From TrEMBL:
Pfam families: Methyltransf_32 (PF13679). Transmembrane segments: none annotated. It comes from Pyrocoelia pectoralis. It comes from the Eukaryota. This is Methyltransferase domain-containing protein. InterPro entries: Methyltranfer_dom, METTL25.
Length: 381
């Protein structure tokens, strides 16, 4: 059942009300679905420059949902929270002409997004493929959204362009607390008419943010630990691919990472749980080689681990236990989709409990092997 829940949405599985409301556009997007090949159409080539395959796939899929939802809820304005490099917003503006505010806390992301917008627009203008001007491109709002803050007020304070009207609220892989903020914003702000949200990093959510719905709040017989929320971020499909392709050696990386954590705690406890470089391993790669790759970047050494720490005597018995970590990891993977389903269904209940909400959906929109957080929450008032 869970597998069915996560299976990619074909057109046929999108809600009927979306099929009936798909606007026509002059410029279209026809990226080869999931293909690495160079797009044939010049417009596609311009539109998808610098956009990674995963992001292209997500954008292509979101184009089946966002435009019909805009029509259904009668809005032409989008507020994107955590817009990153702005690829989705740029294409939504160029192709559909929507007015967009892109809110992003990281100023490097904002600068890159502005540069990409400018380059794409100038190309299209030179080829006379668009009527848009620079002022039509997404407005960048460089700010850190805080819980309890009204997003439209944050925009008005920075943009200075008067009152923000009715809009669709968007969050594509909004990490942890940002997802909760977006959900609360949709609930509290009558001007938010529709919502499209792909969550990620569930473990970063505050304890008080689960469950969010009254329904589950009254019934929840247990507390979700940080570890449970963390495992919900893993895609069982990728894991199964490795299983089916007999690439179990690569799963040893989890055992290696556990030993590396032991060394980190020993040599520099302040780096506990720090993200290390991700390293693909195969049967020929030993722990030392892995450890050096994961913890070194040129001359930079993380966590003060000396080179001989990677083959010290204490490591050997741990290496012999490595497969038990893989076994434990596999058992955790079995419950991962159940935890994610629980979180998302709680969020959906929360949305459905709000006044004026007409429909809510949890849609498995992305191909999970390409984009592991593949479910989106959709609602409109
Ligand atoms: C996982 S990225 C996704 C970026 C983009 N939506 C995409 O899919 O390409 C999440 C983005 O949200 C931004 N972000 C996270 N929390 C934020 C907050 N509280 N306020 C503003 N931006 C935030 C991060 O800087 C990051 O660029």
């Amino acid at each position: 059942m869970i597998r069915k829940f996560r299976t990619i949405a074909s057109d046929a599985r999108l809600p009927q009300e979306f099929h009936d409301n798909h606007p026509e556009t002059e410029l279209s997007l026809s990226f080869a679905n999931g293909s690495h090949t160079r797009p044939e159409k010049i417009s596609d080539h311009i539109l998808c420059r610098k956009i990674k395959l995963k992001k292209r796939h997500e954008i292509e899929r979101l184009f089946k949902v966002i435009p019909p939802l805009m029509t259904l809820s009668g809005v032409s304005h989008i507020i994107d929270c955590g817009s990153g490099q702005g690829h989705l917003d740029r294409l939504l503006t160029i192709i559909y002409g929507y007015k967009i505010h892109s809110i992003e806390m990281d100023c490097d992301n904002v600068e890159n997004a502005q540069l990409h917008d400018k380059t794409a627009l100038e190309y299209l203008q030179r080829l006379k493929m668009t009527q848009l001007e620079h002022s039509d491109m997404p407005t960048k709002v460089n700010c850190f959204l805080k819980s309890g803050q009204h997003i439209d007020e944050a925009i008005e304070a920075i943009d200075g362009q008067g009152v923000v009207g009715e809009h669709l609220l968007l969050g594509l892989h909004a990490c942890g607390p940002l997802s909760n903020m977006i959900l609360e914003q949709f609930a509290d702000n009558p001007k938010c008419r529709a919502l499209v949200l792909a969550c990620c990093c569930y473990m970063k959510n505050g304890k008080e943010k689960f469950p969010m719905s009254q329904y589950l709040g009254e019934r929840m017989p247990f507390v979700l630990s940080r570890e449970a929320k963390e495992v919900a971020c893993h895609a069982i499909e990728k894991f199964l691919e490795k299983f089916n392709a007999n690439e179990l050696d690569s799963l040893r990386v989890h055992g290696y990472r556990a030993i590396l954590e032991h060394l980190i705690l020993k040599h520099d406890p302040s780096k506990k749980h720090t993200g290390m470089r991700s390293v693909r391993i195969d049967s020929s790669m030993g722990f030392k080689q892995y450890g050096l790759k994961a913890s070194r970047n040129g001359d930079t050494i993380w966590a003060n681990i000396p080179d001989d720490g990677f083959d010290s005597e204490e490591i050997q018995p741990m290496l012999e236990e490595c497969d038990r970590v893989v076994l434990y990891y596999s058992l955790r993977m079995l419950v991962a989709p159940i935890v994610e389903a629980l979180i998302l269904l709680d969020y959906e209940h929360y949305l459905a409990e709000q006044t004026g909400v007409k429909s809510t959906y949890v849609i498995p929109l992305f191909e999970p092997t390409l984009s592991p957080r593949n479910m989106i929450l959709v609602a409109h008032k």
